[in-house]
Amino acid sequence: MNFDYSINHDILGRLYIRLDARARRFIFRATEDGIRVTAPACSTERHVCEAVERLLPELTALKKKANERYKKRCIDASFVINTPDFKMKVVEGDVGLPRAEMKEGDILITCPPNTNYEDEHLQSWILSVVEKSLSTIAKWLFPLRMSELSARTGLQFSTLKIKKSHGRWGSCSINKGINLSLYLVLVPRHLQEYVMLHELCHTIELNHSARFWQLLDSFTEGKAQLLRKELKNYNTCIPNFSQTS
After folding, report:
1. Contact by Cβ (8 Å): 205, 216
2. Which domain does 47 fall in, by range?
3. Are 57 and 118 contained in the same domain?
């Protein structure tokens, strides 16, 4: 998601502010790297700061809860991702330095024996390998699926971009531009479709009104709210997709 500007708060950390002509009030959402603020288009930085100070106890609790939710364990030799669209695993082998390779369509990361998996540089490198791989798959896969769903529903979008967004699976602009998180590759395909349909419906209904949910229900056999609830079992924290082999 694109933001208009950001503010550094002494207690809450970085606040990312997006001005939205459709917003009628301030909406706060905590993610692993800060707090997202959706503000009415007429809001100034002073208005945002005043709202933050009024709600500081609630926002502090929200940030604490998000930190706990996004807390990541180390990606180590027990780490495996096994989904229909993406498979990878970390193993130890006879190598001098960690390396990544594509093997039969899967990502294999090999680390030397006695690797210190708590090393921040190693964790950053592994995560970058995963994210680059996810981005490559998403940029190939999602345009095809979005085009199919657009043709099926008759709902048109203007552009599709793949973002490394945390805490949000997708978004739709007033100009019908759709953004999808690269982490969406990791959720089941029926939930991928739900997110894509959700954003396509926003090309017609820009909010979450009753008409929006009725429209989305018409494309999901009346299961929009059930799918929304199921999607909450997933988030964009990579280790949450790990399975021990």
Report:
1. no
2. 5-70
3. no
Helix (H, G, I), strand (E, B) or coil at 46: helix
The CATH number of the domain holding residue 160 is 3.30.2010.10
Query: How large is the angle between the packed helices 189-202 and 120-153, nearest 10 degrees?
Result: 60
* Structure-model confidence comparison of residues 234 and 50, the more confident one: 50
The answer to whether residues 42 and 128 belong to one domain is no
CA–CA distance, 181 with 193 (Å, rounded to integer): 13
Distant-in-sequence contacts of 135-143, Cβ < 8 A, 24+ apart: 135/162, 135/164, 135/182, 137/85, 137/86, 137/185, 138/162, 138/180, 138/182, 138/184, 138/185, 141/85, 141/185, 142/180, 142/184, 142/196
Clarify whether residues 30 and 87 are in a common domain.
no
Strand order in the sheet with 177-181: 159-163, 177-181, 170-172
Burial 223-235 (b: 16+ CB within 10 A, else e): ebeebbeebeebb
pTM of the entire predicted model = 0.71
pLDDT single digits (tens) 36-49: 999 999 999 999 99
- In-domain check, residue 193: yes
Q: Which two structure tokens, joined as six digits, stand for 210?
A: 């009753």
Tell me: do 210 and 98 sit in the same domain. Answer: yes
Looking at the DSSP bridge assignments, the partners of residue 30 are: 35
In a domain, residue 75? The reply is: no
Q: Residue 120: CB partners within 8 Å, gap ≥ 6? A: none
For residue 105, being part of any structural domain is answered with yes
3-class secondary-structure state, position 181: strand
Q: How many domains does the chain have?
A: 2
List, for residues 172-195, the tens digit of each pLDDT value. 999 999 999 999 999 999 999 999
